[in-house]
TrEMBL record:
<dbReference type="InterPro" id="IPR000644">
    <property type="entry name" value="CBS_dom"/>
</dbReference>
<feature type="transmembrane region" description="Helical">
    <location>
        <begin position="571"/>
        <end position="596"/>
    </location>
</feature>
<dbReference type="GO" id="GO:0005524">
    <property type="term" value="F:ATP binding"/>
</dbReference>
<dbReference type="GO" id="GO:0005247">
    <property type="term" value="F:voltage-gated chloride channel activity"/>
</dbReference>
<dbReference type="InterPro" id="IPR002247">
    <property type="entry name" value="Cl_channel-5"/>
</dbReference>
<dbReference type="GO" id="GO:0008021">
    <property type="term" value="C:synaptic vesicle"/>
</dbReference>
<keyword id="KW-0129">CBS domain</keyword>
<keyword id="KW-0067">ATP-binding</keyword>
<feature type="domain" description="CBS">
    <location>
        <begin position="752"/>
        <end position="812"/>
    </location>
</feature>
<feature type="transmembrane region" description="Helical">
    <location>
        <begin position="312"/>
        <end position="336"/>
    </location>
</feature>
<feature type="transmembrane region" description="Helical">
    <location>
        <begin position="386"/>
        <end position="407"/>
    </location>
</feature>
<keyword id="KW-0472">Membrane</keyword>
<feature type="domain" description="CBS">
    <location>
        <begin position="656"/>
        <end position="720"/>
    </location>
</feature>
<dbReference type="InterPro" id="IPR001807">
    <property type="entry name" value="ClC"/>
</dbReference>
<keyword id="KW-1003">Cell membrane</keyword>
<dbReference type="GO" id="GO:0010008">
    <property type="term" value="C:endosome membrane"/>
</dbReference>
<feature type="transmembrane region" description="Helical">
    <location>
        <begin position="497"/>
        <end position="517"/>
    </location>
</feature>
Length: 816
């Protein structure tokens, strides 16, 4: 008895073991969302999956020991068992198995009572209710962001004395002193020079307005980067690379939490209003996914299952694009083509419903006052001609070249930010880029206006009543004829607009490279579309004037008669916008549908398809990765791209750990190790799990146990089971042999053992192993030879091997 008492006093790993486990995890030290100094105090923003995990006998085996000396305390669920650590990958197979068991149990119980039947119906309906809530919340937040950003953008130039909460357009709506030609000028709207020095004329007034524009831009940018740095480091960037990684099964606690949602919503308004070359569309996907993740906690089915939660996040991403572009169908296709890893048919339907509700909510709010979901909605009715496919393809080539150039230069700059002192000063970097942008933007009216307004101006098809410089044509026709306006010679305003747009194009191309990836919310859709729209409008006006002055040329006279409306420059701008966006993101189907929904013109699908495919082909020829995949690789996330083929002839034995001359694989035996032995292995290693074998001599595989489950189970047993000491034997078997008297109680952990781990032989080709990891979402796969355990292949090993085969740095994969 004295020996037993002494053993009980030898608690060893008992004190603070779970905290020491957390500290030993090397993954946490490596996390680096682009450019942010990580503050892990925000980690508990969204708690781990529910601490009450259901008993799962069908998957993990199980059974009650026959010996009354064995305490199988896992008959009741233990808080934390079955959950995952931060910066680890979920086990898709285990999560799907749990959901099937849960569904089977609910179905069986529904036949027993009316209450159980009601519970079964509510469980089936909960997914649709969740989609409804996500759509409502995403649409409402998008409307709030649109209204706020529009008002704060105008605040840089002046204020409405009739009500400071009105933006420039709304301020002049009800004015009685406004003319149609100068509808943006009214006595109620005062520029800063009018308020400060009571005049809007002269050089000094221009300097005052210039100074106030730059000052407001710096203030908005400073507030945005400060809020992100202090309260939510995860709120920076576009969020789409991280969401793609999370949807593939990776855990990043707090990335989709409530603090991230609040700060990203506020700072997105500030960042867009500052005039930086960025958009809100990408971050809106992050905002919608935050809404989906937070609302998941209201439903047990999604709160307790990481795989089910990722189905919801796929639908939320569709809702985000739906409100960003007013394109519900495009949003569903974007989620399917670009961000989702697992997209079953049921998720497709629910994504469609969530996108529908989100778009309807935004339409009800009507943020732009034009009954449209976006600022740059346009309608074209002029038919295009077969010859125009040539300039459309040229725009596709330009888009592909711009996309490849942007990705290479932006990744190079972001890598420099991560590896030099620049990354330690995010506030200074943001302020410097904002100051340069504002100083260069103010003199040019096309860079001074918001990028969404610029795209709207470029997409616009000139009519008789348009007062824009882009529509300053010479009218040499009878206006009483009605119908379409014919092609006309360009006036002074058009030529002035052309060189201003050329300067705008250069500024946008250069400044966007340095803006994307800073420590503020920054989307890439709008800047990319702006670059393409400018190039397209320039080409469109050139084609229009060519057709007007050289109508006798063979390429024109067959389809363009004198006095006809042959060329639509706005259409060229739209095709150019699609080409550049496709070159950067490598989207195709979803991109064409989004642009089609923006314009409402079915007849322009072929030009859009031609430009999108040309853009993708050219960009892929210069570099296989889109911007989001490039940032995933830059940050070392464990993302296994499903679109890439693995064509190398290597075997599982070439990749598995341990290699030759390495220490033997760390294993647990099923019935001969003490609590102290297991705790020693846990404290001396950082592996996320351990194979369990019959004995070290035989190496016959029994199953696989996760490190986290082991630690939590041992700690729980020490607290709740009297007599468990460091010398207690741990059993992973269903039955145990009789024990001699005065032996400490044993600990049975069979219920946390995965009895069906995936295994391959050592001669399995790696292309098959890679396919298994992709299609089943595995964390690890055990390697055997004639039934004996040889080694283990983790997802990180697969990613490192793929990188090595592609002549890339395998150490760039930071997480497991």
């Amino acid at each position: 008895m004295a020996m037993w008492q002494g053993a009980m006093d030898n608690r060893g790993f008992r004190q603070g073991s779970f905290s020491s486990f957390q500290n030993s995890s090397s993954d946490e030290d490596l996390m680096d969302i682009p450019g942010t100094a990580m503050d892990f105090s925000m980690r508990d923003d969204v708690p781990p999956l529910d601490r009450e995990v259901e008993e799962d006998k069908s998957y993990n085996g199980g059974g009650i020991g026959s010996s009354n000396r064995i305490m199988d305390f896992l008959e009741e669920p233990i808080p934390g068992v079955g959950t995952y650590d931060d910066f680890n990958t979920i086990d898709w197979v285990r999560e799907k198995s749990r959901d099937r068991d849960r569904h089977r149990e609910i179905t069986n119980k529904s036949k027993e009572s009316t209450w159980a039947l009601i519970h079964s119906v509510s469980d089936a309906f909960s997914g649709w209710l969740l989609m409804l809530l996500i759509g409502l919340l995403s649409g409402s937040l998008a409307g709030l962001i649109d209204i706020s950003a529009h008002w704060m953008t105008d605040l840089k130039e002046g204020i409405c004395t009739g009500g400071f909460w009105f933006n420039h357009e709304h301020c002049c709506w009800n004015s009685e002193h406004v003319t149609f030609e100068e509808r943006d000028k009214c006595p109620e709207w005062n520029s800063w020079s009018q308020l400060i020095i009571s005049t809007d004329e002269g050089a000094f007034a221009y300097i005052v307005n210039y100074f106030m524009y730059v000052l407001w831009a710096l203030l908005f940018a400073f507030l945005a980067v400060s809020l992100v740095k202090v309260f939510a480091p995860y709120a920076c960037g576009s969020g789409i690379p991280e969401i793609k990684t999370i949807l593939s099964g990776f855990i990043i606690r707090g990335y989709l939490g409530k603090w991230t949602l609040v700060i990203k919503t506020i700072t997105l308004v500030l960042a867009v209003s500052s005039g930086l070359s960025l958009g809100k569309e990408g971050p809106l996907v992050h905002v919608a996914c935050c809404c989906g993740n937070i609302l998941c906690h209201c439903f047990n089915k999604y709160r307790k299952n990481e795989a089910k939660r990722r189905e919801v996040l796929s639908a939320a991403a569709a809702a985000g694009v739906s409100v960003a572009f007013g394109a519900p169908i495009g949003g569903v296709l974007f989620s399917l083509e670009e961000v989702s890893y697992y997209f079953p048919l049921k998720t497709l339907w629910r994504s469609f419903f969530a996108a529908l509700v989100a778009a309807f909510t935004l339409r009800s709010i009507n943020p732009f006052g034009n009954s449209r979901l976006v600022l740059f909605y346009v309608e074209f009715h002029t038919p295009w001609h077969l010859f125009e496919l040539v300039p459309f393809v040229l725009l596709g080539i330009f888009g592909g070249l711009w996309g490849a150039l942007f990705i290479r230069t932006n990744i190079a700059w972001c890598r420099k930010r991560k590896t030099t002192q620049l990354g330690k000063y995010p506030v200074i970097e943001v302020l410097v880029v904002t100051a340069i942008t504002a100083v260069l933007a103010f003199p040019n009216e096309y860079t001074r206006m918001s990028t969404s307004e610029l795209i709207s101006e470029l997409f616009n098809d000139c009519g008789l009543l348009d007062s824009s410089k882009l529509c300053d044509y010479e009218n040499r026709f009878n206006t009483s004829k009605g119908g379409e306006l014919p092609d006309r010679p360009a006036g002074v305003g058009v030529y002035s607009a052309m060189w201003q747009l050329a300067l705008t194009l250069i500024l946008k191309i250069v400044i966007t490279i340095f803006t994307f990836g800073m420590k503020i919310p920054s989307g890439l859709f709008i800047p990319s579309m702006a670059v393409g729209a400018i190039a397209g409008r320039l080409l469109g006006v050139g084609m229009e004037q060519l057709a007007y002055y050289h109508q006798e040329w063979t390429v024109f006279n067959s389809w363009c008669s004198q006095g006809a409306d042959c060329i639509t420059p706005g259409l060229y701008a739209m095709v150019g916008a699609a080409a550049c966006l496709g070159g950067v993101t490598r989207m195709t189907v979803s991109l064409v549908v989004i642009m089609f929904e923006l314009t409402g013109g079915l007849e322009y699908i072929v030009p859009l398809m031609a430009a999108a495919m040309t853009s993708k082909w050219v960009a892929d020829a210069l570099g296989r990765e889109g911007i989001y995949d490039a940032h995933i690789r830059l940050n070392g996330y464990p993302f296994l791209e499903a679109k890439e083929e693995f064509a190398h002839k290597t075997l599982a034995m070439d990749v598995m750990k341990p290699r030759r001359n390495d220490p033997l694989l760390t294993v647990l035996t099923q019935d001969s190790m003490t609590v102290e032995d297991v705790e020693t292995i846990i404290s001396e290693t950082t592996y996320s799990g351990f194979p369990v074998v019959v004995s070290r001599e035989s190496q016959r595989l029994v199953g696989f146990v996760l490190r986290r489950d082991l630690i939590i189970s041992i700690e729980n047993a020490r607290k709740k089971q009297d007599g468990v000491v460091s010398t207690s034997i741990i059993y992973f078997t269903e039955h145990s042999p009789p024990l001699p008297p005065y032996t400490p109680p044993t600990l049975k952990l069979r219920n946390i053992l995965d009895l069906s781990p995936f295994t391959v032989t050592d001669l399995t080709p790696m292309e098959i192993v890679v396919d298994i990891f992709r299609k089943l979402g595995l964390r690890q796969c055990l390697v055997t030879h004639n039934g004996r355990l040889l080694g283990i292949i983790t997802k990180k090993d697969v990613l490192k091997h793929i990188a090595q085969m592609a002549n890339q740095d395998p150490d760039s994969i930071l997480f497991n």
